[in-house]
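Title: [Solved] DUF726 domain-containing protein 3D structure

Original question kept below for reference.
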Amino acid sequence: MSFLSDFGSKPRHSSPKTDTQNDQADDQSLATLLTLEQRAELSLLITSTTETMRNDLVKGFDQIPKSDPQKVHASAAEPDLSKLSLEQPGDGSQEAEAEALQQQEREAAKHEEEATVSATPKSEALKRSALEFFDKWSENVVLRVGEVVNSRDERENAQHARKPPSQSNNPQYAPNEWVKAADARLAKIYPPVQTPLANLSHLERSTILKAILLMLLSLEAYRAHSRTLILRLATSLHISAGELSKMEKDTAFGLLAAASKMDAGDSASAAQKASATARKWKVGLASVAGAALIGVTGGLAAPLVAAGVGGLLGGLGLGATAAAGYLGALASSGVLVGGLFGAYGGRMTGQMMDKYAKEIEDFAFLPVKGSVNDSEEKQHERRRLRVTIGITGWLTKEEEVTQPWRVLGDGSEPFALRWELQALQNLGNALSNFISSKAWGYIKKEIIKRTILAGLWSALMLPFGILKVAKLVDSPFGVAKLRAMKAGEVLADALIHKAQGERPVSLVGHSLGARVIYSCLLALARREAFGLVESVVLMGAPVPSDDEVWRSMRSVVTGRVINVYSENDYILAFLYRTSSVQLGIAGLQEIKGAYGVESYDMSQDVTGHLKYQNMVGRILTEVGWTDIDEEELKREQVVLRHIEAQEKQQEKEAEKEAGDDAKS
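Solution (posted by the thread starter after getting help):
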């Protein structure tokens, strides 16, 4: 790597007088960039931002959002329950069997409510633990920043004339229209903190943000809290989220490129241990983390990492010497670099795997951009400081495990979670057959005609024949629904045991994939595992909309919690009719009583439950997701237009057939 040669073997101290441009670049630090007053402003900005984050955490437990009086929600209606019966005359035996089926559904609703209550941790205890974890993290951040900006070298350098950062050979980052729209939405979610530092030049603000990134990494883990902090700081410094992603990408590249130069002589035993763990698991987690990512030893010298990262940062005006100092112990330990990116693979205990192995199959993280069998070099190129995991909720073919998630951009490292392939394929086939059946046509027509609401499905009496057909899809849905809860618990355990390293993870899922996320977050909350998950998006989620549940989920997510729903998702309403009326269904309605939970009504676009799989990119664009592959988004739009055209043609044919039946 050319940038590795830019760093001399002898460290150089900052000086106000330099002889060459290279000397100036290497000497650049926050001390030479900022005055004493400006460095005090930087400390104040970080302190104010962490205080805002803490206040939001407290509000997540204590504050109930005010409802929008302008929002007319379907659940506010009061229909006449006596008119909800669709029962048709039949003999006594059929009526008795139908009543027995309805009784089973009522019992299932009761069981759902009891299971939800037992799975949700007690609010006060969870609040204390969440605040304790946050305060410890916040204290470490403030102390680390204070060590840097108030160090003796920094104070001495501050006596000299302030130097602007050296100019980059690369063009200044220019966000496109989509990124600008995402930035605008982000600024509403994370309102900027007013600071004089926002008046500095763009290059100076970028250099400050990059220095903070290195300081956060020096804590030896890039926690979800740290990622949310730097994203909030970016909005205050008017730096695009897209540019921040590029900084993270470049930093990951520099760290890994430097780490790859270490002495691999002692790495064999560590790699063998990782491989043994993978074989013991038999579920594919270690292949994701990549034990072959880099050789893992402690022999990496600090100047080497400083050269790799510092060489890249020099393009933004921060010198290699300062970069090494800001990275701290991370600049001198290949073990820490490997651990950051998950070089040791999954480390779940055999006892934990034995507990779930009988109930969970096909559990693995699959790279969205590539294969687990790619060369070490290709895997190396995919590594990022962040991870995003997409989770599919039903399948008709195996490639749909990864297909919906190709729209995820490369600012993070995207994976698809493969779980219970057979159960999801059984569900997908059952759904496809059911939707095309006359039984579903009848049910949907009655739903639309009577405006039956999701929360009132327990009062709906269906004809015996329809109930019998419904069981053909109820059974695979019930099986997959149960497996989703187990898969969520295994996912939580994998994150706790650093299967993806010390990196923040975002989770995106639709249908039962969203239920996996729901189960995972509740498991993390019960185990008080904070700082692991950055943001989550649940689309068409067959999970309760209960406020207490969502407050618990919110407590283990440091960034955004997004619920995407559609009031026109009749399939979800029908499948989840056995849910408790009191709990509600998140995929059909807004989450009103949980502070910090964003709800997006996609009823106009999502006219059926199966559309989510082909609308991931459109939905993520709508919610302001900051990391999307534009080329894949265009491909998705072409596929979606084709599907919508087919649906319209099918509707016309169905209307024509209905008209012909009426005439006859």
